[in-house]
Amino acid sequence: MLVAGNVSIYQNKKYGALLRIQYIAEFEHFNMTGATTVLKPFPQESIKLDQFRTDVIEGLTAKRKKLLSKYFYDHRGDQLFQQIMAMPEYYLTKCELDIFQNRTADLASAICFRESPFDLIELGAGDAVKSSFLLKFLLDQEADFTYRPIDISGNILSELGERLAMQLPALKIDSLQGEYFEMLRQATGSNNRRKVVLFLGGNIGNMEIGEAGLFCRELRSHLNAGDMALIGFDLKKNPQQILDAYNDRAGITAAFNLNLLSRINRELGANMDTDNFSHYQNYDPETGACRSYLVSLVRQQVDIAGNRIVFEENELIDMEVSQKFSRQQIGELAIRSGFMQLREISDSKNWFIDALWMAGH
């Protein structure tokens, strides 16, 4: 699931990246005046529903049943995820916020070791709660930079722009609405300034290891030598602590997963009985993969958009992966993706790190 306070996410199927799509309209380019320039059309609402139907049917008729975690986030899913982030067991949000609140100077010095002007580009900016601490520090240090948040939601970007205009009036902001890499391509092609890309919240962990490698190589392909990426990684730690974060006693995470079945019923006219499924969480401390499943408690048949789907008793639906990393894995991922790792900045408990990478030649 998404972590560390960014409420906007979108899943790119090619890379498996959890990044969220809820508002489908047009790609728009917002500036500080509130003016809007349409860049290109985005699929209409009917196409969005068609894609949801296609993804659900493909996933549930596959040999290994699977649902895409990008569809967790309807209105009810948003509410449940906010409750998850507020749980005492859910450490991820607190850990990265600790870094941005208490190690801001370290972040800034690592980013600004060159005094040249730069663009600070945040993928999936959301409410920018964490990055706001860095933005303020950079402004106080009179760094020459432009903040360029990227998000799929125009509403979120508009609200973010208004809030930052009040809180940080000296900030230069140029927001981009759309899919990450398309907007990153536009951002990196618009000028010759140095680029620093933020990909926070441990969102890299919402990909399988191979998908994370593809994502990072794609990210590198949009950057020039000397550009940087600051990426958040949740570290491997006590297995029980990780399980507690994703399998809370209050059952909020279970409700979060089961809510997707309710969404399928509501939007696709299905007849899935949520009482016939239960949530199961598994963590493999060797691989670092923390996986969410729904388990069919009985043999059952369900009808979804004209398709009859059979679930055997104890059959699993693969819902989501939350990958944890060792420091060695992070360094190896950087090298394989065409980056050099410059620095690791950790929270006070050494549970989470933001790794600063530089694009190599």
From TrEMBL:
One of its GO terms (biological process) is methylation. It comes from the Bacteria. InterPro entries: EgtD_Methyltrsf_superfamily, MeTrfase_dom, MeTrfase_EgtD-like, SAM-dependent_MTases_sf. Keywords: Methyltransferase, Transferase. The keyword Protein transport does not apply. Transmembrane segments: none annotated. Pfam families: Methyltransf_33 (PF10017). GO terms for molecular function: methyltransferase activity. The keyword Methyltransferase applies. Residues 52-357 form the Histidine-specific methyltransferase SAM-dependent domain. This is Dimethylhistidine N-methyltransferase. It comes from Pedobacter xixiisoli.
